[in-house]
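I am writing to request your help with a piece of structural work I have in hand. What I wish to show you is a protein chain and, alongside it, a tokenised description of its three-dimensional fold. Could you please explain, in whatever detail you think fit, how the structure tokens follow from the sequence? You will find the record immediately after this paragraph.
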Amino acid sequence: MEEKVMTEKIDLTKRVIVPKGVCIYSSTNDQGKITGTNPEFLTYSGYEYDELNGQDHNIIRHEDMPQSLFYILWTELQKSREHVPTEVIVFVKNKTKFGGYYWVLATVSVTKYKPNGQPALYMSNRVGVYDVSDINWLENEYKQIKLCESRKLSAREISQHKCLTMATELIQGEKYAEIIKKYR
């Protein structure tokens, strides 16, 4: 299979728009360590595979991302069982190695289970969010949740705080669902 060669250099120091049709993939173990990526992941993150393999996946977590959204994501994924798999869909702002960022719609699921039925390996398939009006809306909504979280809450406090309610209402809302449909 012939590999696609990129003809334009991407400036990873500012906002990067991941074009329509590009799929970014990574896998993570139950300790949050990266176990695999595709070339597109490397292209848009700016890292080499050797820099990422075995590293915490949060190496690409942008500081603008609300903790509440990750709390919801991981809480839902922990409910996944082989006979009742769980898939979580969320918009994520990732940071690049060089200080830039890119928005994706991530579909995260469990792909391997331990003998006791607990999740062992997670897969995240992402497509780029390329519509600037969607990006602006998401940034504003996430900024409101981050403002709520600015009290430096622990994970336990987040689970009982209005920030979690805000995040839950956001991802279950009509506008969020409407934007998801555009990218799936």
Q: What stands out?
A: The helical segments are 39-45, 49-52, 67-78, 132-149, 155-159, 162-171, 174-183. The radius of gyration is 16 Å. The chain has one domain: 22-183. The chain has seven helices and six strands.
